[in-house]
Amino acid sequence: MTKYIFVTGGVISSLGKGISSASIGKIMESRGLKVSLVKFDPYINVDPGTMNPYQHGEVYVTDDGAETDLDLGHYERFTSAVTTKFNNVTTGQIYNAVISKERRGDYLGKTIQVIPHITNEIKDRIKMAAQATGADIVIVEIGGTVGDIESLPFLEAARQFRLDEGYSNVVYIHVTLIPYVKSADEIKTKPTQHSVGKLREIGIQPDALICRTEKTISDELKEKISLFCNVKKTAVIEARDAESIYQIPIIFKDQGLDKLILRHFDIHSKTTDLKDWQRKVVDRAINPTHKVTIAVIGKYIELQDAYKSIYESLIHGGIFNDARVVIKKIDSEDIEERGAGNVLKGISGILVPGGFGYRGIEGKIEAIRYARENGIPFLGLCLGMQCAVIEFSRNVCGLKNANSTEFEPKAKHPVISLLAEQRHVKDMGGTMRLGAYPCKIKSGSLASRVYKAGMISERHRHRYEFNNKYRAILEKKGMVFSGIYPGKDLVETIELPKAAGKPHPYFIAVQYHPEFKSKPDRPHPLFRDLIKASLKVSGC
Ligand code: GLN
């Protein structure tokens, strides 16, 4: 029988509920159990696909083409669970489904209400995720903070869930903040007492508290939290700020959170340790031998979350190569103002990520030119590949005004353009080329050395494609089209074995998003080899 863990958040947002949920997943897996993780997002958008990164951060794409919350990225990086459209549910999806059913007549004769119709739909989604994966344990993270109006139906559904499934099949874990007040030199438990109080008003008594804190929580304070929040002292888990997020599962396990959960579920399983994870991931993340600086040239660089999976993938590449990756976040408009040579001095590798719209494009193109001409290892992702094609067309092939029709609909040389099937698409939501597509790798290419495979599968999220009319012209000048989607003969990877008359150490760009499949103990090969090449360039 499937068991369920609900993870709620209190006091403030950004407490790391996603990483906490993923870490709980990891420690459950360490006990030999199969997990699946579901994120509930209380906004009315059907998915985050049409949201600005300033609003939402990264949009994480699953194999089946769902545009989802970035917490699903944490779930896949920490556990072996593969997420799908069942793993991210929004208020918009719930209402969409309920209203469609009402129109169809499924509820004929009834008044449709939040309780029970909306809450039933929410509970059905949890069950669907359980059935789709056959997981032993389904971890449900409820977005937002307890006390928000928007998340109430989700919390109400979580409350009912224990009633339906039985006490011993459901665990509630509340992630909360124990703030440090400098003037008093004390950490304070009152906000946590209030947020647990708020949960109890809804009818949920948490079984464990994950307490985010800058300082150690003394035994005495744990007793106080336990008494006022009605939670066992051993269930007050201290979650101090860690040097690496990948330490969190070990921190939880050391405090017996896995035992506590399994005791509640009455599951007897063998204990395995996380020694391999400690050795292969955590130790190397915290104490690496080498250091390398990689520039990420974006337009949302001031946001922590906009390129989440990319930053993590670079760190994974560093873990593998025993190197600390210093990520220099560079605003592409800064390159437009000050020039690539000035901004990129001392950089050992350059990554140009995905994006939309014209702002900042010329700066990205200049950065790529700098990487190409100066033998700096370069990895371009999605828009980053499109910019690399524009740069090469303009500066090497003499196609003066080469551009993407996304930026210049009537471009003289539309080297990146829309496929005919995209030209008539009017709806913006869920209509890009999305999800996993196969790609055939050319033997003897850099891509084939990186992947060590002839056929790969990677996730996509874009509308525009390389325009095959220009393939022969670019090929003649030395660009290698090393990865092709055979179904439609679409260019998926480009590379330059030689640039500016010399062999280039690492110049590769891809139309897809490899960052969604990298894991700390299994780095994506494109990132692994970018770091390797950058270390070499920097003399390590
Ligand atoms: N804007 C480009 C397109 O739609 C690239 C998208 C991306 O980088 N994800 O094709």
Architecture overview:
Strand 14 (349-352), helix 15 (361-374) and strand 15 form a beta-alpha-beta unit. The model has no long low-confidence stretch (mean pLDDT 95). It contains 20 helices and 25 strands. It folds into two domains: 3-279, P-loop containing nucleotide triphosphate hydrolases (Rossmann fold, 3-Layer(aba) Sandwich), CATH 3.40.50.300; 289-421 and 431-537, Rossmann fold (3-Layer(aba) Sandwich), CATH 3.40.50.880. Helix 5 crosses helix 6, helix 12 packs across helix 20 and helix 15 (361-374) packs across helix 16. The strands form six sheets. Strands 13-12-14-15-25-22-21-18-19 form a nine-stranded mixed sheet, with helices on both faces. It has a seven-stranded parallel sheet with strand order 5-2-6-1-7-10-11, with helices on both faces. It has a three-stranded mixed sheet with strand order 16-17-20. It is α/β, with parallel strands linked by helices and 540 residues long. Bound molecules: glutamine. Glutamine binds next to strand 19.
